[in-house]
Amino acid sequence: MGVPRKLIPMVLRPSVRPLKYYDIVGDLMMNFLNGRRVAIIRQVNDSVMLVTRVKQEDGSKLPIILNNKDELIKHVKLGGIDFMASVNMATSRDANLAIIDVKGGRRVWMSDRGLELLDLLVTAVRAVFEELGLTSNVVVFDGMNGFKVMAMLSGEVGAEDLRVFANIVEEVVHRSLKSMELYQRFRDDVIIGGNTMLKVRMYRVPLSLHWSTKLSAIPVARVYDFTTISADPSNVIKRLESLRKLLEPLFTKNPVEALLSTTKRWVNGDYSIIYKIKGSVKGKIAGIGMGN
């Protein structure tokens, strides 16, 4: 996981009691937890720790796998505040979920054009997803400083293909935006990559609270219109039905054939695919920004 055992939260308590919050959103969250190993960040008062295994009656420790909402609530009662799931099923090492991170640093988030830039980046990433056949994708706020573009896959994809996929996304997005003044100004303060998918290999489950900010990892229709107020758990509960609709594309498995075909071409040195995808991306981002 790469998360330290002892953590200091920025916000001590969410606006809604965790037990009430997870009782309301838990059923929807189980769509992303079932059959996957789970890591839980547990908070008791101001003490925060990461839990990845649970002790059994015979004293052995086993990975956490939640089978229903009742088991989720049991962990909430023990202090569970932040729930993460593996990108692969518990029975496999290969991922069946593609995730690209788009993060902004302090300069981006403090700028009055920061969301415009993040909107451009996310739009470009989604355009690459669509070119590779991953048309059912969702943008999710990560609870802290960025967004994740996510797509469920029809088959399991190995680490090497995922690494090439992340490289293609990063290369195409950079080439598509490099001539734009806004991107040039903040390029050193944004990250586009597959760290969650490749290194951490666990992702914050949609609607989970972030252990530090106590904001919810909500799906976002359009990054340009995003406000942190919308990710406050009290507002999430009120908007749950509309958020459920935004998450629906994650219930559809995207075919992996085009993705695997493209990664194979890249490995074989056929970089013409970059220019082909770039043309489509530039068409998608034309006119994006400043509220258009």
What does this structure look like?
- The protein has 292 residues and is an alpha+beta fold.
- The protein is 40% helix and 21% strand.
- It has eleven helices and ten strands.
- The mean pLDDT is 94.
Q: What is the straight-line distance between the termini?
A: 39 Å
Strand residue content: 15-25%
**Helix amount, in percent?**
40-55%
By DSSP (H or I, 4+ residues per run), the number of helices equals: 11
Q: How would you summarize what this structure contains?
A:
This protein is of the alpha+beta class. The protein has helices at residues 18-33, 69-77, 106-110, 114-131, 159-177, 181-186, 195-200, 233-238, 240-247, 257-267, 272-285, and strands at residues 37-44, 47-51, 53-55, 61-65, 80-86, 95-104, 138-141, 146-157, 190-193, 202-204. A hairpin with a 2-residue loop joins strand 1 and strand 2 (47-51).
What's the topology here?
Blueprint (H helix, E strand, L loop, with lengths): L17 H16 L3 E8 L2 E5 L1 E3 L5 E5 L3 H9 L2 E7 L8 E10 L1 H5 L3 H18 L6 E4 L4 E12 L1 H19 L3 H6 L3 E4 L1 H6 L1 E3 L28 H6 L1 H8 L9 H11 L4 H14 L7
Antiparallel strand pairs: 1-2, 1-4, 1-5, 3-4, 5-10, 6-8, 6-9, 7-8
